[in-house]
Amino acid sequence: MVTDIANMRLEKNREKNTIKSPYSQFGKINGKHPLQTSAPDSYILYKARKRKNGKVSFFHFDLAKEMGLISTNHANELNPDLEKQILETFSLVIINEYDIENKRKFAKEDIKDNFYMATRYLQLQHPDQVGNSSGDGRSIWNGTIESNGVTWDISSCGSGATKLSPATSIYKKFFKTGDPTISYGCGYAELDEGLGTVLFSEIFHRNRIPTERVLAIIEFPGELAVTVRAYPNLIRPSHLFLHLKQSNLKALDQITEYYIQRQSDNGSWKNVPKRRKDRLLYFLDKVTDAFATTAAKFEDEYIFCWMDWDGDNILMDGGIIDYGSIRQFGLFHHEYRYDDDDRYSTNITEQKAKSRYIIQNFIQAVDYLLTGEKKSIKTFQKHPNLKRFDEIFSDCKDQNLLYKLGFNLKETNYLYKNHRAQVKAFRKVFSYFEMAKSKKGIEKTADGIICNAIFCMRDVLRELPQLLSVRKKILEPAEFIEVTKSSYATKNDLIENSYRNQKTQEFQKKYLKLVKAVVAISKKDESKTLLEMATRSSIINKYDRVTGDSVTCIVEEVMKVKPRMKPSSIFDLSKELSNYQDLNPEKKETPSRPKHALMKYIHEVIKELREGI
Fold first, then answer.
1. How distant, in Å, are the alpha carbons of 136, 239, 560 from that of 313?
2. What's the Cα-to-Cα distance from 30 to each of 48, 53, 88, 155, 363, rounded to whole Å?
3. Integer Cα distance of 228 and 509 in angstroms
4. In whole angstroms, what is the distance from residue 331 CA to residue 434 CA?
5. What long-range pairs does 253-261 form, CB within 8 A, spacing at least 24?
């Protein structure tokens, strides 16, 4: 009997020990990453230790469910066990070169078992311009997690100073993590940076713009933070261009093949060829399509992303990464440039040329891989893939404009296929108003320079169909300008002249010509078509649309009240804000009254700053 009872107890203990923790998947995020075996020249390794005094400020419950880190029926609340697991996994700081040089001692129990990588990639702000010392300056890659056939990359920003930061390259010395004498090179990140990334990235994601997303934010004293980011593939063009510029053919081949295989395994690319040449040409077509589409999308949505020849500030599929200089303008402020201390950024109209040059670098890389000979970049100035880029860019610009006008998918496709000349003619006159800028000239902003746009094209696209439907005739020039003018327009900017008056008439006549083309093949009359366009356009061209300025103000307000906010409250806020900024005219959800206490303030800020940068 005693033996039987003992055996029963032993069996129960075994069962108890084999029950998985609901958060066991976090244990797979341990520093190991397939890049470490696939492309050994693409990273440096660091030991990491536990970083004390952190607390979870934000956790993305929906993203964690999608990644398989928590169950789909998990409550959107942070419990002690979950917080402990998040901190155990992500509250880390690297043991860097400064620590080793100065023989700093750390408790053995605080040092993690595995190494974490900081990846190498090209960065134009490094003096050598070939990537010998550049890459993740304050980030580590935590590892991967697989869920539903998709492998996610996870990285943390603010995890310590690596030797790949510009500061180490410029000053020729290693920095202690947290060194107050240096900013970017200190290896830390700030809490408001992470919160801004949460809000912006969720709005973009809701509107089907590819972007990395924030899984968690761990806050530390002094308003510092580690921001944990996730995406199915975090490789940037600069990861490849590093090896291209250094003529490291083997390493270039390794990371290119790694990227192709990950895209295939994740299901992002279908029917990837097996033969090497076909595989590389398929890769080239895919990145060409992605960057042409992205460049057109960014230009039409007024998204400023500092793209340049190094391919650093964007992902391989055109996804957004690193929100430090990302902005969305309310108007086409096409002369805005970000001031990065020692240089000004590209502007929004230059993004196309920079994207195209990135493709030219990919062409050079693929040719190098196929021939073993690295030819001059100038050799590829007339390559067929650059023509492909130009054609896709132009096609997307036409389709994007038809969508913004409020035509549905069927109407858009019809006009695109059968009336391209009319679409391009309208796009030309649309661009005349969109590009118009203030006579004040260049002015300084808080973080750069600008010459303000004077017309709000979203306003005219939203209001015009209803006005034309009711009035049954085109607007007089003064009426059209009244609808279209922005708050930046001065009296001098709006002085009437015959050329602009003629353009107001041309705009409306070409607009109605597109409407009439749709009416001719549908059973609807013109008035009904215009009203349907007005309904769709009112959502697509939402009056109170978020800008970079408004996100900055929202984050400032969140920082003020944050001590009273739970992590779940910030998650709820990001969800409600992204829903409020959902520009999909097909969505079925009905508008609801603001639930979060900050939403009333947020509505007011977005309306006030809707035309800014």
1. 12, 11, 30
2. 10, 21, 10, 11, 36
3. 51
4. 8
5. 253/369, 254/38, 254/39, 254/40, 254/41, 254/42, 255/35, 255/38, 255/39, 255/42, 256/280, 256/283, 256/365, 256/369, 257/38, 258/34, 258/35, 258/38, 258/39, 259/233, 259/235, 259/283, 259/316
Cα 292 to Cα 18, 160, 288, 313, 417, distances in angstroms? 51, 35, 6, 16, 19
Looking up tokens 């215009």 gives 530
**Burial zone of 115 (CB within 10 Å; 0-12 exposed, 13-18 middle, 19+ buried):** middle
**17 — pLDDT class (breaks 50, 70, 90):** very low
Distance from C-alpha of 22 to C-alpha of 34, rounded to nearest angstrom: 25
Terminus-to-terminus CA distance in the chain, angstroms? 79
Q: What is the pLDDT of residues 139-197, one digit of tens each?
A: 999 999 999 999 999 999 999 999 999 889 889 999 999 999 887 789 999 999 999 99
Cβ atoms within 10 Å, residue 540: 19
Q: Do residues 210 and 236 lie in contact, with contact meaning Cβ atoms separated by under 8 Å? A: no
CA torsion through residues 389, 390, 394, 400, sign: positive
Written in H, E and C, the secondary structure of 360-386 is HHHHHHHHHHHHCCCCCHHHHCCCHHH
Amino acid at 437: K
Q: What is the distance between the alpha carbons of residues 363 and 380, in angstroms, rounded to a whole number?
A: 7
Q: Which helix (H) or strand (E) holds 466?
A: helix 457-471
Please enumerate in sequence order all residues whose Cβ is within 8 A of that of 512, keeping only pairs 6 or more positions apart, or say none. Answer: 468, 474
Provide CB contacts within 8 A for 237, sequence distance 6+.
287, 310, 311, 312, 314, 316, 358, 361, 362
Kindly report the number of other CB atoms within 10 A of residue 474's CB atom.
18
| CA 18-21-22 angle, 5° bins | 135
Overall size of the chain counted in residues? 613
Query: Strand 213-220 to strand 189-190: parallel, antiparallel, or no bridges (unpaired)?
Result: unpaired
pLDDT value at 425 more than 90: yes
Residue partners of 298: CB distance under 8 A and separation at least 6: 304, 305, 348, 351
DSSP character string of 163-197: TTSHHHHHHTS---TT-TT-SGGG--EEHHHHHHH
Report how far residue 246's alpha carbon sits from residue 240's, in angstroms, rounded to the nearest whole number.
Answer: 10
Q: Do 292 and 389 form a contact (C-beta atoms < 8 A)? A: yes
Contact 94, 186 (CB under 8 A): no
Contact partners, residue 588, CB within 8 Å, separation at least 6: none
- CA angle centred on 557, ends 230 and 585, rounded to 5°: 60
Q: Are the C-beta atoms of residues 217 and 226 closer than 8 Å to each other? A: yes
Coil, strand, or helix at residue 145?
A: strand
Q: What is the pLDDT of residues 122-143, one digit of tens each?
A: 998 777 778 889 999 999 999 9
Contact 129, 309 (CB under 8 A): no
